Amino acid sequence: MDILSTVNSNDIILTGDRTTGQLHLGHYVGSLRNRVILQDRCQQFLLLADAQALTDNMGNYLKVRDNVLQVALDYLAVGIDPAKSTIFIQSLVPELTELASYYLNLVTVARLERNPTIKDEIKQRGYERDIPVGFLTYPAAQAADITAFRATVVPVGADQIPMIEQTNEIVRRFNSSVAGDVLVEARAVVPAAGARLPGIDGKAKMSKSLGNALPLSASPDDIRQAVKMMYTDPGHLRVEDPGRVDGNVVFTYLDAFESDSTQLAELKERYQRGGLGDAVIKKQLEERLQALLAPIRARREEFARDPGQVMAMLKQGTQQARTVAARTLADVKAAMGLNYY
Questions:
Q1: What CATH number did the domain enclosing 101 receive?
Q2: Which of 47, 112, 159, 312 has the greatest number of C-beta atoms within 10 Å?
Q3: Rounded CA gap, 42 and 54, in Å?
Q4: Alpha-carbon torsion 313, 156, 18, 171, what sign?
Q5: Rounded to an integer, what distance in angstroms lies between the CA atom of residue 205 and that of residue 158?
Q6: How many Cβ atoms from other residues are within 10 Å of residue 266's Cβ?
Q7: What is the pLDDT of residues 293-331, one digit of tens each?
């Protein structure tokens, strides 16, 4: 689904990133470039999810803290404008924690454990029954993030749809408990299939932890080496051999970054017919990535020269976010009869 075709001016978007490392090309294709466009179409809140990052990074406090600035630099570098998008630090909005504490009364442990996203991540991390409570109850915390800003749209990967479904369950339960429409349901929007990049090693997902990601701050040499190591078609041994396009990592990337569709179609036809070497398509891809990342890298370096200014921007965005979240919290507490004075 193309999120750009499903969002209108009345929508409110809530999205963001865990602050566990710099962002990479996968983030750019999957979300960042859309955020730059959407900030001119509707209201957008961008969450620097440091509190969420701690649900499985307790003890790595400096890693989470330091990457707040790094992710913010990536946002600014790609063209996200703090005058158009509200960028804020999750842990500095205590209203979110209070909302989550109320929502926890609307869900059961059994329901949390049945959440497919949580079940899969518990298995991936090998927690078995030794599950951190903060990790298990994350769906309630995410519901607080979404509802605090009355978000109507949440861009997510397909594996995260159950989280939005649970948010909407909480919304319905709360509204039913107070006999009013206090909270707003959100709709999950999953990016189109072509909006997800595989890792440079050809694995299904580009990931910082797997070491197969190309960061947005990559140097020209980093880009060159990354393209050089990409897999093409193992059966394409000679230039004159017909080659496969499907599953060919270089062509997958060209689909994402080559703007000349006619030229790309010609390259694919020549490669499949035989007579086009891997070096040619890799050179084409490298040129596209160098052209894309050079200005992003330059802007990032410029913003990084004054980290104090970036943090001041985050402080302002966080204050704006708190104002909005405080209004929602006041409405929730009033609906529950907790407005004592």
A1: 3.40.50.620
A2: 47
A3: 30
A4: positive
A5: 13
A6: 12
A7: 999 999 999 999 999 999 999 999 999 999 999 999 999
Q: What Å distances lie between residue 129 and 14, 57, 123, CA to CA?
A: 32, 18, 10
186 and 87, same domain (yes or no): yes
Same domain for 167 and 51, yes or no, is yes
Same domain, 191 and 48: yes
Structure-block tokens of residue 15: 């999205």
| Backbone phi, psi, residue 268, to 5° | -65, -45
pLDDT of residue 230: 93
**166 shares its domain with 229:** no
Q: Report which secondary-structure segment, H or E, holds 51.
A: helix 50-53
Q: How many CB atoms lie within 10 A of CB 52?
A: 24
Q: Which is it for strands 85-89 and 43-49: parallel, antiparallel or unpaired?
A: parallel
| Structural domain span for residue 252 | 220-301
CATH number at residue 238: 1.10.240.10
Report the alpha-carbon distance of residue 92 to residue 75 in Å, rounded.
19
| Domain co-membership, 172 together with 296 | no
